[in-house]
Here is the input.
Amino acid sequence: MAVTTNILASWRAPRATLRRMLAAGQREDRALMLLMAGCLVIFVAQWPRLARDAELAQRLGEEAEQPLQMLIGGTLLAWLFIMPIVFYALAALSHLALKPFGGRGTGYGARLALFWTVLVVSPLMLLYGLTRGFIGEGPEATLVGALVVIGFFAHWAICLTEAEFGAAANGATA
Here is the structure.
């Protein structure tokens, strides 16, 4: 299946989608590609907000104004270089934290669950970025931000449960 088709399928049946991806075999290159694609989409999603912030700072004549290129460069560093390392560490910690509770999955399964969640939630991050860019801070941005957070943690919990305790973890070795 195409990645976009899998993203849509994952919102309807996240366990089945992750189970199918885990059944395809351990492919660390695929997991890294999913993570980097999700981080890239989230990076691009920040552009409208950054453009708004830079424009407002320029209009207000703030002393500490930062050019748009500097804001985009910092966001690039954060989302494409630092956050992937953070996500790898978070996946390892989540895998180790579930071992005492009977988690039978692999480190790869925990990584795939988290990395896939990042990519699945990235379209919501695009909506959040557009909301922050066009409307700015306010109840609309708070609502969309809450949807992103709820969607992320709900999807990650479902996928991690499947990777560690579900049918995909049966027969898996640590």
In short: The CA atoms of residues 53 and 133 lie 8 Å apart.
